[in-house]
Amino acid sequence: MERVSAVRSFGGQQLRFKHASAVLRCDMHFSLYLPPQAATGSVPLLTWLSGLTCTDENFVQKACAQRAAAEQGVAILAPDTSPRGEGVADDPEGSWDLGLGAGFYVNATEAPWSEHYHMYDYVLEELPALVAEQHSVDLERQSIFGHSMGGHGALSIALRNPERFRSVSAFAPICAPLQCPWGEKAFSAYLGMDRELWASHDSCELIRRATSHLPMLVDQGAEDSFFEEQLKTPLLAAACQESAYPANIRMQEGYDHSYFFIASFMDEHVAFHAGHCAP
Ligand SMILES: N[C@@H](CCC(=O)N[C@@H](CS)C(=O)NCC(=O)O)C(=O)O
């Protein structure tokens, strides 16, 4: 693992690394914020999953999360959104919602994607373990959050693995990939036509199947241009209500899909997770 950059921030360090991922079979970059508390003891690990077209750097530069992470004493790990590099398949039509920058946090089963697109195993297994080998983060105190495609990733990964995480939150998540164009396009490419396999990565379905509950917070901007066609927060709210899953789902008046929205509620999300990651 090679350290690409290290910058002081709110008494801690904003770090960026490059490494050879065994799971993705390519070189990857990721970012890690270590709060000042990490210098003297182990701290909880929050994983942030970004949305379509992002790398790890969008979050680092635009989410304004470092101050809250320093105050709350939590590390934040930001992976990239897909495998990268020469030889990694991309959408032949060059669209931004499939292929590079659009891994959807699943393990692809279909060629050509199945060669590298294993973002589910990468963010759940390989990357946290790698970070914990070299930094003082506590894998017994993990939470996960994300935005849009990364909101889908955070919710679905946490719902599939409730024993791994203390809490989950999302900004403008793709709530029901089985029922929106982004999800249908990505899942049919990566997972083929087995809709039962799709359902095992659909947060609304996973809510209905849940046998235990994680603390869950979701914020959705009311002026988000993707809200009705792609994100479908009301379906998540309905699934939670039907299944008596206790989630806090909030519509935020006037906010759009951007990092201006994310930054506005970032402190609350970090505090929410830190509260559930107490020793
Ligand atoms: N490229 C798309 C927008 C894609 C988009 O909004 N991506 C979101 C995640 S779904 C994002 O975080 N973009 C990066 C950024 O704002 O820094 C467009 O032109 O409409």
Automatic annotation (TrEMBL):
Give a Gene Ontology cellular component term annotated to this protein.
cytosol
The Enzyme Commission number assigned here is 3.1.2.12
Catalytic activity, as annotated: S-formylglutathione + H2O = formate + glutathione + H(+)
Q: Which UniProt keywords apply?
A: Hydrolase, Serine esterase
Q: Which residues form the active site?
A: 148, 224, 257
Record Pfam families: Esterase (PF00756)
Family matches, as InterPro entries:
AB_hydrolase_fold, Esterase-like, S-formylglutathione_hydrol
Molecular function per GO = carboxylic ester hydrolase activity; S-formylglutathione hydrolase activity
- Tell me which Gene Ontology terms the entry assigns under biological process: formaldehyde catabolic process
What is known about what this protein does?
Serine hydrolase involved in the detoxification of formaldehyde.
Q: Which family does it belong to?
A: Belongs to the esterase D family.
Identify this protein by name. S-formylglutathione hydrolase
